[in-house]
Amino acid sequence: MAKTKPGKKDCDSYTIKGTNKLVRPGDCVLMRPSDSDKPPYVARVEKLEADHRNNVKVKVRWYYRPEESIGGRRQFHGVKELFLSDHYDMQSAHTIEGKCIVHSFKNYTKLDNVGTEDYFCRFEYKAATGGFTPDRVAVYCKCEMPYNPDDLMVQCEGCKDWFHPNCMGMTIEEAKKLEQFMCAECASDDDAKRPLNSIPVSPSSDGKVAERALFLWNNDHIRNLITQNRSVILPLIFPALEKNTRGHWNQAVQSLTLNVRKIFSDADQTLFDECLTKYQEDELKEKENNKKRESMWIRLEDVAASKSSEHELVSKFASLSTASS
Ligand SMILES: [Zn+2]
Ligand SMILES: [Zn+2]
């Protein structure tokens, strides 16, 4: 073995106390922090050396957690994300608690199960300046954020970009139920190109069509136009909105409708209340009309019945003519 300093020699491996786990240079390890409330430190072992009394020291290169970095944790940082720092230390090998695996970002996203010992690293970090390498990464969604592997994203069938359900006005549950997804921009392009009669028909088509239509509200431009012209548009669509909110069979449609309803009530509460009152009045009127119609039918049937007892032959024509009138 090569001598490093007088009285010290390199070791090939070290066995973690109380275990049969071997640590070798290049391995990633968890190290006991001085403050036991904190999660263990993560480091990459660069070198192992023993002194003449066989005390093993380990040269480590620290991984930083996002909260330990100068910029702090950002929204796109994963729970298991680490930065490989330029900060090296000599530590006693006794502080090694266990081993872990720091995956590349790509490999991490391919894991079927993320175990407690699995971490990932996509950035190197300069501890003194807080700088990152690479300093640019691909961004996704209309919020233009780097990918956080902990967050569910949905891919648009049109532009193939990835989107956060939240940024698209959906909950995670709604997004999980989607068979396919189109971002608002692609959906409006698509609808313009496609003749109306060729909307794909599937068992859930009316839910899908309603969902698409409601996604239009995710487009800022369209939303602005509609809210500007609300005095014309809201009275027209209010009955449909109200019917959806009272119980559309498709939950995604129902909650999207609630969002749209809120946009209007936030924009103009007075107009909204007027429409609601009108809707309730119309509803009452319709109920009364239905009652009238029913009682009319009962009267007609009575008349028909009384006539049929007199003229058996005429009754058929009587009921036919009342049904067609
Ligand atoms: Zn987003
Ligand atoms: Zn798209």
Automatic annotation (TrEMBL):
Gene3D superfamilies: 2.30.30.490, Leucine-rich Repeat Variant, Zinc/RING finger domain, C3HC4 (zinc finger). Signal peptide: none annotated. InterPro entries: ARM-like (IPR011989), ARM-type_fold (IPR016024), BAH_dom (IPR001025), BAH_sf (IPR043151), PP2A_B56 (IPR002554), Zinc_finger_PHD-type_CS (IPR019786), Znf_FYVE_PHD (IPR011011), Znf_PHD (IPR001965). CDD domains: BAH_BAHCC1. GO terms for cellular component: nucleus; protein phosphatase type 2A complex. PROSITE patterns: BAH (PS51038), ZF_PHD_1 (PS01359), ZF_PHD_2 (PS50016). Belongs to the SHL1/EBS protein family. This is Bromo adjacent homology (BAH) domain-containing protein.
